[in-house]
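Lecture 7, part 2: worked example. A protein chain together with pyridoxal-5'-phosphate.
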Amino acid sequence: MPKINENYLNLKESYLFTEINHRVAEYTKNHPDKKVIRLGIGDVTRPLGSDIIKALHEGVDAMASAETFKGYGPEQGYAFLRDAVAKYYAGHGVSIDPGDIFISDGAKSDTGNITDIFGDDNVILIPDPVYPVYVDSNVMCGRKITYISGTAENGFLPLPDKNIHADLIYICSPNNPTGAVYNHEQLKAWVDYALENEAVILFDAAYEAFISDPELPRSIFAIEGAKKCAIEFCSLSKTAGFTGTRCGYTIVPKELVFKASDGRQVSLNALWNRRQTTKFNGTSYIIQKGASAVFTEEGMAQCMENIQYYKENARIICDVFAKKGIRYFGGEHSPYIWFECPNGMDSWEFFDYLLNNAQVVGTPGSGFGENGQGFFRLTGFGTRENTIEAMERIEKLL
Ligand SMILES: *Cc1c(COP(=O)(O)O)cnc(C)c1O
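Predicted complex, written out as structure tokens:
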């Protein structure tokens, strides 16, 4: 009989989206005449840009003839795409060696798989509330987690506590679910702390393309010293609408070198390369062709058009909360608006209240960690029409 990985038994059951669907289904069954609007979606809804579609077609056509056919590609990704990503960073003033870039099928896999290259007895800091993958992937390998609190008081942007030593630090900025984004000075505080503690920051930049203020860092590598203490994960999911198409990348600088217990100097880039070449056979050539069009001038302009659409929805949502004097976070450099439930309601109470009285569906903040209790997430990923209608209903209700 196999011994199972019993760490999986320690995972908290993820009721969040099942429970939401259950409550919405129940409501629609009892009120078939009511139009329910979903503003809880964490997924993009706009189609891919036409240049990306064209490049995907070219990728498919290449498979049709022996001269251009592609079999296994490099596990790290094709040079044309790694170079394009490096050029994209250079455009934001951040210099990245294409050799430090690993193309993948998305940031969820990489943020989850990165646990492979670290040992079991690290002190791991994870913010609460946050994207649940960081917590669950560590629980799956039996690791202990120390939480750092995001609260209304710190703007859901916790800063390092000099009295706590950490080895690994997860940061997501702009944040899912709170939409909060660290400024340069705050991220520098984390980089300085990591350098002092010889810690590694695992930085999730999935929403970097939503940042429009040039003063705000879009990459941890915009901070001096970060190449000695940080790995960055990014994805085309939110940047280019690739949630169903699947492509991302992870940057592991060669400067990340740490001493093993036998005294050897070990490069994290080499370990990740070994991990990927052993367990991953690369992202599909067709998808990488499509992804390369994201980084052309025209392709990026098409992506930004979609992002502007989502951001305008977010603005419409924020305006109502501002008008109603409801404390909210995010919504400016993020598709997410995170707000305090009115009248002291807890997250699920407010979910039911909103569903029953405005027929609007959102996401209870308590699903993202203990500190999310009493908060609620709406997103700009809906259609313009639905966003306007939902916010008119909410404005009347609150
Ligand atoms: C959506 C999202 C991602 C992207 O995941 P993919 O696997 O690339 O689709 C990564 N991190 C966060 C926090 C996200 O919300």
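Residues 106-108, 131, 172, 176, 204, 206, 235, 237-238, 243, 248 surround pyridoxal-5'-phosphate (CB under 6 Å). The chain has twelve helices and 15 strands. Keep this in mind for problem set question 3.
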